[in-house]
Amino acid sequence: MVASLLSARGLNKQFHSGNQPVSVLSNLSLSLEQGESLALTGRSGSGKSTLISILCGLEQPDSGRLTVLGEAFDGDAGRQTEARWASLRRQQIGVVFQEANLMPALSLLDNVRLRVRLAGQDEDGCRDWLERLGIGELAARYPDQVSGGQRQRAALAMVFAMKPALILADEPTGSLDRHTAEDVTGQLFDLQARYGCGLILATHDIELATRCNHHLDLGHQPEA
Fold it and tell me: Degrees (nearest 5) of the Cα angle 57, 34, 132?
């Protein structure tokens, strides 16, 4: 892994509500080094989910420059750029969304195995991660046969098992009960410490945000 995992400079993003432009990110800059964690906080609509999507290449900023794991991006959305982002997400960036992103035709275990296989990692520990997250007995079930919280734990197992260089997590425990959420976030920070990966965590939980090395409140962005 490279020492500097991520650097963003002057990111701007706006959407339109009717005919009116609405600024979501305004001249935003941030950086993350290997082994560091950053909490993103702010009210709903402040841009946390949008920023997570930009940092993994699923959305493009209107302007600004982004460097992730040694790859530089300047907002170009061409096919070559999309392929570079896809390669990073497949092998080095683990993304956890608010809603679990599982393949419905695969069992929970096979979802984890597929993710690990795409990342080029050893599949031997896949079942262990389901066990550690409290759903080992559900390994053979399909996503529509388990609860939303159990699907989310399977999605977290997929990310943990791939051993990424960078984890981007958008309210990853929002669908979990308090006790399970505390257990899962503990494992998330343990994983980061063990493998020295970077972590960017979007959360409404200020107590959870204080566990990160850095904190960025998107409700207080500088004006462009």
Answer: 85
**Residue 79 within a domain:** yes
Give the tokens for residue 161: 């098992």
Is position 22 within any domain? yes
CA distance 58 to 52: 9
Q: pTM of the entire structure?
A: 0.91
- 145-183: per-residue pLDDT in tens? 999 889 999 999 999 999 999 999 999 888 788 888 888
16 lies in a domain?
yes
Between the alpha carbon of residue 113 and those of residues 135, 154, 159, the distances in Å are: 15, 11, 11
Instruction: State which residues form the domain around 72.
Output: 1-92+164-172+200-224
Residue 43 is assigned to a structural domain of this protein: yes
What CATH code is carried by the domain that includes residue 214?
3.40.50.300
Write the DSSP string, 86-127: HHHHHHTEEEE-SS----TTS-HHHHHHHHHHHTT--GGGHH
Say how many domains are in the chain: 1
